[in-house]
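<context>
A single protein, sequence plus fold
<sample>
Here is the protein in question:
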Amino acid sequence: MSETTAEIVLFDGFDELDAIGPYEVLQNGAQAGAPLETRLVTLAETDRVTASHGLRVEPDGILGEPDLLIVPGGGWTTDDEGVRAAVDDGRLPAAVGERSETGTTIASVCTGAMVLAAAGVLEGRPAITHQVGIDDLEVAAGSVVDARVVDDGDVLTAGGVTAGIDLALWMLEREFGAEIAAAVETEMEHERRGEVVR
């Protein structure tokens, strides 16, 4: 089996757990035997990205052409940074749309779904976001589902913050088998909640 590349795209104001939770799950998946490389990336070269609660992260590089791209949320209710600023800027939604068109599986955590909506990849598809963005997602994409994780094939979305851990565990299970996902779940002492809506 060839190695799968996963990239989690960071931007100033992203929510820490939205990105770091899935990162840890996927890294543990690789340690459990999944042929998977996970990287933290940005759109442009930078030495550091500052998250919404002040965590400073040194990214691994710039966004490439991954098999899987995860977009975290954070900052939807503010104007100066986070998802709102990324959507207003337009570059991240454009990059997400381009990756989607070339076959990358796109996933979002929390209000990262608003980036996917702005990219046009949620049009007519079931999706979920953090509770603060539900009404906006309904306006932008029109098909909000009451679930913790929604899997629509090449587009996946997760609800708020800790739902990103469930999303990443589901992705391990879907791509590499239940045994690897269960091993990571045990290692992290995490219990998934609810059913994945497919």
Remarks:
- The helical segments are 16-31, 82-89, 91-101, 113-119, 134-140, 163-176, 178-188.
- The CA atoms of residues 129 and 159 lie 4 Å apart.
